[in-house]
Predict the 3D structure of the following.
Amino acid sequence: MQTTTAHPTMIPLNKLHPSPFNVRKTSVAGVDELAANILAAKRVIQNLVVVPDTSGKKSGFGVVAGGRRLAALALLAKSEAIPADWPIPCQIVGADEAAELSLSENVHREAMHPADEYIAWAALVDGGMGIEDVAARHGTSADTVHKRLSLARVSPQVMALYRAGDLQLDQVMAFTLTDDHAAQDAVLASDGDPSVWTIRRALTGEAVRSNDARAVFVGEVAYLAAGGHIRRDMFSDDTYFEDGGLLTRLVRERLDAVAAPLRDAAAWVDVHAEVLTYQTRGLYCAAPTVQGEPDAATANTLAVLEDKHAKALAILRKIEDAPASDDADADDAAWSVASDRVEGIEDDITAAHDRLAVIAPEAKALAGAVVALDHTGEVVMLQQVIRTCDKGKVRSTATGQADHSEAKASGDPQSVKTDLSAYLTAVGQNALAENVPVALRALAYQLALGLIRARFESHGVEVSAVDHARLDGSRTLEGSEAETQRNARHDAWDAALPADADALWRWCLAADDTTIQALLAFITARSLNGTHCAARMAPLLAALGVAPVAHWSPRPDYFARLKKQTTLQILADNGHTDPSFAKLKRDALAARAAALLADSGWLPPTLAL
């Protein structure tokens, strides 16, 4: 029986080869890195276990444990980094114990935890070894070293949870977004097993990602030049602009410069230092226009186009009236050419008329422009628009009447106006859904406005793919009878309508006229939106017979949101002038005002339509 040698024997590399006794048959990654490590150390630190092998053409030794080291050494020899006969420390064992030793080494050895590796690399750097030197010694890149160093420097609590298996590597990577151990531990305090998204969100705070439209618009160079700081995620392509306030200021400054030339031609210019969202667009609408008189050149252009149109139309009609020939494809091609010609001329005529459109005189003083960003970070401008809540002023100016509803509404703070407007919208939606005749007429009116190019005259119905079922943020609506009725109706229709589009079409075909009419009324009601301007709904509410005074009575929470002096003035205007009121605290005064004005018919300015 052959026995194991007590001390390592130096055997030339070219005398070593893989042994069939090696139980590991699957290749192991990391050979390049191991080769670099061996080369940097200038020696093999751990002995190879070999068995004498004379079965081949040349005598030598089969490696039963250390196949990965042998592969790394062969790679070095092939590249001539080491000589082919470089002496390798080996432990010689007998053939009868080779397989058992190979199995023992591969199965029973305990792999190093990644955390130990990260910390060991950090110790090398802390000890004075350069990043490039560490990378070269371990056959990797400097970027990989930087990443492992960042992992090594997470908080002790994060590292301990990683070692214990309570945190995964992707979670630890997310924690490297900051070096602040207190911030890392605070995330764990709020959630013992936070998701990667939660970690990133918590550690980036108000920082803005580089793909945000504002960051794209300003650019990293300009942001850094202004004193901003960048945070880079080493494990992804994400970059963060840490100073959101500075970024917003830079966006506004640049957009203000873009807006400057517009200020001379517009009554106002609103600059939004952000992406122009659908909600923001809803604050504006196109200013009404009238057709201006064409000058001589435009009149001549229109005359020429009309003449061309008449001739092209005559050719098209001639082709249509001609008997079919034997070549149907040729007939179709001739008709297509003539039809395209007619449509092209009609488009030119429409464009010429559009160029004659000018803002209606009654809207000129209210027309302005909006400057903001689109989602790609490009500048977007809306010109010749009016603010949505100014549409009533356009109507009143055109008829020579003052818009009292807007004047009255000026007494409520904006948050209260929005609250009460949302509440009144819900009341209007309920009434509209229950009144099929008026709902269908409101629907017809809204659609017909497009035919007469007067969409700005809307009474609040916004028939489109937009669903105004959500009316968040109204304390007045919350818990009210209006909300209960509204939710019940929504729930009933949501349960009745199929969720699949094809199934919905089959349902509509099978439904009777009464059901379809009720559905149209519900959809029309659901599209009613007066949350930003209750006054626009006044004509519709009047037709429905909805009197706000029947749905709202003075409440303490309303007066609690007003200035004390405003509440005192309201009481005085309604004959309540007790001097002691001025000494009451706001909450007490609010309760007193609600009690005194109950059943008086008094309405807040927003609801006094």
